[in-house]
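Minutes, methods subgroup
Present: GH (chair), OT, SY

1. OT presented the first of two proteins processed in the latest run. Sequence and structure tokens recorded below as shown on screen.
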Amino acid sequence: MLSRDNLHDYQNRAISFIKAKKRCALFLDMGLGKTTTSLTTASDLLDGFAVSKVLVIAPLRVANSVWAQECTQWQHLKHLKVSVCTGSEKSRIAALLTPADIYTINRENVPWLVKHYGKRWPFDCVIVDESSSFKNASSQRFKALKRVLPDTEYLWLLTGTPSPNSLLDLWAQLYLVDFGERLGRTITGFKQRFFESDYMGYNLTPRVGAPEKIHQLISDKCLSMTAVDYLTLPERIDLTESVSLPAKALKTYKDFEAQLFTELADGTEIEAMSAAVLANKLLQMANGAIYTDESGNWSNIHDSKLDALKELVESHPEENLLIAYNYKSDLARLTSAFPDAVVLDKEQTTIDDWNAGKTKMLFAHPASAAHGLNLQSGGAVVIWFGLNWSLELYQQFNGRLHRQGQTKPVRIVHIVADGTIDERVMTVIKSKDATQQALISALICAR
């Protein structure tokens, strides 16, 4: 069992930072041990009577297992009792009534939790795991947590992706830390101060010098660390497997892209009523199928990506493969083509079998496997069968394998359909990454 002496210097630095600031954000890369760092800090605060009750808000799968499991792996944390407050309302209430040191709840139930306690909020320490899920100032979870901030003495945010889409994502998260002291009391004021809008008022771009000013303003409350600086990770190799669509499928795709309307071979008519719907439908078509109605029925367009995946499987006979899919139609086609593959579910045995090397191919949706899962023991190849627009999901999913404990070079393979929206998604992901890396780099330099 690991002991406190096994903590890295950067983890001890983070622990001291939290204790000194009380309310802060840890922008720590995947694999830097955010959970252990937070549990050690919480244990110290509890032992020193600085706090009496700790709440962890996390993605559902992480809330259910990761925090409790981490306590069992460290000698100095095994005394902590963790109560998991998820599931039915009856189960949540029972868990809240159970004497414990730390209570974990999934972020979707934060509004319920705040309403449940009313003016009797008992948690003087709150840890928000993957705080980018609170980036939307209009969300119910943010509004609920905002109401109990005055009753929370210690609060810290944990994420490796603080601004997955743009610097706009920072305002709500920093408000949880400082009540709007640094970036303004309202999101509207933040936008007016640091961003310019186009003539329609829809698209916002940072004013000249705004990113640097934002970085400067928040640097005293944010500790940022990257795995590159603190860990010796195996090499990450990004690869693109380009596929060409059959002529008929490509024509259908191009016609739909240009006209927002197409008729499939069986006579089914497909129409896109907005740009967002069009983008979603084009992603489906690039993968090989398109939904034909709101009931979930879909029609096959081509098998180019399936054929490419089969070739990748054949060319990597000794490798276990983690496959990212985007739509249920993708999963249906994948499981039909690879009947021996396993689909990631909520069972711990599925994860255990993968990490034990028993699973040759694991299908997972990025939203289900993006946060908190340690899958690095089971394989070193990620294949993106279907891409999506979310930088956060993209980075976090890749980080399931490319993280501390991985012993082999990690290959990230993107199956990209030539001449389709896939190519634009790759460009957008890189662009968003540049924005986030600028934030991270600036915060590191400010320390």
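2. SY then presented the second protein from the same run.
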Amino acid sequence: MIVGLVVMITLVVIRLNGATPQLALPDYLTLPDGTRATAFTQTPNWYAVVTDDDKILIFNRDSGELTQEISVNSRP
């Protein structure tokens, strides 16, 4: 039983330390060059993409056009 517990804990640690999976975005959304998506959400009218440089990009759901860019200062 102890060996089984050690194996399970080892597998969880390996899984959590693995590479971060790529975020799947709709094909017609084009992010600015050098930008990497870290989060994505959607509504009936728009998509929002949070980027690794602390910006929120709002895209029109019908056209895929970037309609708004919001800078978020998360550092004190």
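Chair's summary of item 2: Strands lie at 37-42, 46-51, 55-60, 66-71.
Next meeting: continue with the remaining queue.
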